[in-house]
Amino acid sequence: MPGLAIAVTGGHTEVTDAVTRAIVAGDMHGVLIGLRPITAAGARPGDQVLLTKAAGVEGTAILAQERGRDLRRAVPAALLARAQGFRLHPGISVVAEALAATRHGASALHDPTEGGIRAALHELAHASRVRLRIDLDCIPIRPETDRLGRHFGIDPLGLIGSGALLVTIASAQARPLVAAWRRMGIPGTAIGRVEAGRGVVALRGERPVRFPWVAQDEIIKALA
């Protein structure tokens, strides 16, 4: 696009009776300059697994906005208002924490989206061809997410998770990275470690529990 240094890479318009409101889809490409690419495929045995923010951040905002009328009768108004603002606070951008993780030598990065933390952990393990040993009790869940999840019968770990970032990093660098995030106002938590093997081993109270990959996001339970 002249003047903006933007290349238009696609486009589509359509009129159909099945769509009752305007839908806009964006497509952006970036160019790395002076940075090494970090994908979900670099996790190494011995690394720690870190998570920023909490599970189900974007899903909580969607539920609060799309089902707000029903929720007004079921949850406190202040809690609902906070949940509706989750796209901005804690926010669904992970750029700042990803850049910090890159500077600290992260081996893999993956942002949970559809399928939430559950799907993202399986995707990272598959991409890196490793096994992740995860303590589910360590995964942060905000009170607003927990309350809306209980209302709709939704597991927050399977709820669309934009806003969180999964990071694997050498153990010696994990604590400095979490401290750097904290100085930025971004909470970060160690939730497990990387091992040789395949898949995800999930623990609660130090006991293994079933934690299969699921094709369908939990949000469908409330919005179907």
Percent in helix? 25-40%
What is the total tally of β strands?
Answer: 7
Query: Runs with pLDDT <50, length 5+?
Result: none
Radius of gyration: 19 Å
Mean pLDDT: 92
Largest sheet: 7 strands, mixed
Mass-distribution shape: globular
Topology order in helix (H) and strand (E) letters: EHHHHHEHEHEHEEEH
Distance between the termini: 39 Å
| Structural class based on helices, strands and sheet pairing | alpha+beta
Write out the strand line-up for the largest beta sheet, numbering strands in chain order. 2-4-1-5-3-6-7
What keywords describe this structure?
globular; single chain; alpha+beta; 224 residues; 7-stranded mixed sheet; 7 strands
Care to describe what's here?
- Strand 6 (199-204) and strand 7 (207-209) form a beta hairpin.
- The termini are far apart.
- Helix 1 packs across helix 3 and helix 1 (57-66) crosses helix 7 (143-152).
- It contains nine helices and seven strands, in the order βαααααβαβαβαβββα.
- A seven-stranded mixed β-sheet has the order 2-4-1-5-3-6-7.
- The protein is globular and about 50 Å long.
- The protein is an alpha+beta fold and 224 residues long.
